[in-house]
Amino acid sequence: MVSLVKQTHRLDEWKNHLPPARSDYKDSVDYQKAYEKWRGKACFKIPIPSLIPFIGGKEILLCGENPLSPNYYSSLYSYIPLSSTEDLEGNIKVDALSSATGSGVTNIKFNNQSPATLFFPHIQESDQLGSILQNTYISNEQINEKVGANTAVESPTSCTTVDVRSNNGDSLFATSITGNLEYAASFTCDFDPPVCVGNPSTRYAPQCTKELQGKCVPPDWSCDLKFSQQDCPTGYICGQGCFCEEPVQTCKKSIYISLSTTSNTPIIDDVWSRLVAGPTAVVKRLFPKLGDQIGTLKDLPGSTDISYTGAESSSATLNLPHVGGISEYFLKGIQTLLRPKGYGEPISFGETEIGNCDQTTLPNIPDATEQSCKVCGYSLSPTFKKIIESAGQTFGVPGSVILGTIYHEGAFSRGIDWSEENVIKWSLCGGEVPGCDKNATSVAQIPFGWIPYYFYGDDSLWSAVQKIDSTRTKATISPCNVLDGIYATAKALSVWSGGLSTSVKYPTHLDPTQAYSQFPDTCYNWNLNNGTGAVMSCDLWNENTVATSQVGYAGYCPEPGKHPIGQVFPDNAPFIQQTVGYFNSNTCK
């Protein structure tokens, strides 16, 4: 009788019979009713008359067992594992054949193939847990973008895998690839000449020593009786009952067939996208500057050994896509990020993204047409002069002010060879002045004194050069590049030409959380244009505008008593006077 009512249920049935979530119900009574129904009960809501104090107007549930509703889903729920540990099946198969022995082997075929099955543990849970982890930070608008096109991943440079990751992982319990390998082989062999050949002139005749009825034979023949040369030609002996056996000669050739295999790893693309390379990947959340500053992700495979059976077979490796990259960035990379500096393992990144900018030819640099934007009376290479004047007209800053600014920042006092050839080379996309480091966050860099923290900061001064070359990206634009740096300098001078309100304090790169300086109304004998807005035309600049731009560009007024930290901002630094001098002497009239 027991066997008649016994039922078999699979664990995956519980996926559609989970307990209700409280967040899905506005009213607690409705939630309680759904919960009791899940437990196999029938419930009715009974309203309480409003006349009853405290609880009037509310509802209560009256529940009882429902024989028509199964209760084993709730009764056994506590015994059901909330994650599945079944392996997912993949496979490996032969996809291409080639011979290592040249043109003598043709018509290579691998027929009746049965791919080897691979059993991948934990990969389903990795995908599910990755999705749950993404839920902790992803926005509602991106909820359907958990997997997608990979970004900031280094493009492969060849078809040969040279960088892999390998460790002692789980066994894939692979079965064997079986099939029939067929080929046609043509070859030649060299054999030793026959040894059972006598002197043709004798044909082993006439007989020698007639009384013995012998024959003349080579001395290495086997004979029942052997005599000396007797009356045989030179090199032969006289023998009786002689015979010769040709040695058995064999020809053996080894033909090596290379088998190229392809593996199918289930849902590994989704795991790679969720954890490392996708648009909302976990690693992207922790390394936001991937691609343009700290380098790109390497799509590293995981490598494991495989072997072939057969005479003179060799071992080989099986590369599983993305597994090495997941290990490198999600496992090792995040551990390194969370540990104190120097205690984590080094992480391998690819080259920064260069984009599609032209690295061989300068972009079209417009000629300045406004006379006041041009530089006069100063010797510069043609391209250097054109860049300064073009940047000046683009942002409404006299070229002489740009020239004076880069002068006091050290462009002409550090032994830099500003030849026409060097200026062009250092202005090409990706080109940089030697000795400059765009990643030195808080240290001013030659040739224009840019501190990368400000160059790449919130004001997006780095983007200035995109006015004439939209193909350059943040990954390729650099404070060490002549064209990029000059355009950023022009944009910064334009921004600061209008000053700031005297009530506004602004931070420095030493501690961005602290406000150290503020714009005074005057600096030395110049009135600062505080709060007037940027000056947008070269011919509207005057000495006060120059002084205002220099106070903003340097971050302080060097007049004693006009800045709070003398140790960081030295008194009487002459940069304003120098730039005003260039403005008065080198602006074209």
Task: Describe the 3D structure.
It is a single chain. The protein is α+β, with helices and mostly antiparallel strands and 589 residues long. The chain folds into four domains: 2-79, no CATH class; 88-182 and 254-338, no CATH class; 195-247, no CATH class; 371-586, no CATH class. 23% of the residues lie in helices and 16% in strands. The protein has 14 helices and 16 strands. It has helices at residues 2-5, 28-38, 72-75, 123-135, 268-277, 282-286, 323-338, 382-395, 399-408, 420-427, 452-455, 482-496, 543-554, 575-586, and strands at 41-47, 59-65, 88-99, 105-114, 116-120, 178-185, 215-217, 225-226, 237-240, 257-264, 302-307, 315-320, 505-508, 511-518, 522-523, 526-527. The strands form seven sheets. Strands 5-3-10 form a three-stranded antiparallel sheet, with no helix packed on it. A three-stranded antiparallel sheet has the order 7-9-8, with no helix packed on it. A two-stranded antiparallel sheet has the order 1-2. A hairpin with a 7-residue loop joins β11 and β12 (315-320). α4 (123-135) packs parallel to α5 (268-277), α5 (268-277) runs parallel beside α7 (323-338) and α13 (543-554) crosses α14 (575-586). The chain is flat and about 145 Å long. It starts with a helix and ends with a helix. The relative contact order is 0.08. The model is unreliable at 507-512 (pLDDT under 50).
Distance between the termini: 112 Å
Q: Portion of residues in helices?
A: 10-25%
Briefly note the structural class of the backbone.
alpha+beta
- Radius of gyration (Å): 43 Å
Q: How does the overall form come out from the CA principal axes?
A: flat
Q: What would the average pLDDT be, to the nearest integer?
A: 83
Order of helices and strands: HHEEHEEEHEEEEEHHEEHHHHHHEEEEHH
What is the overall number of helices? 14
- Walk across the major sheet and give the strand order: 5-3-10
Biggest beta sheet attributes: 3 strands, antiparallel
- Low-pLDDT stretches: 507-512
- Quickly count the domains: 4
Strand percent estimate: 15-25%
Number of strands: 16
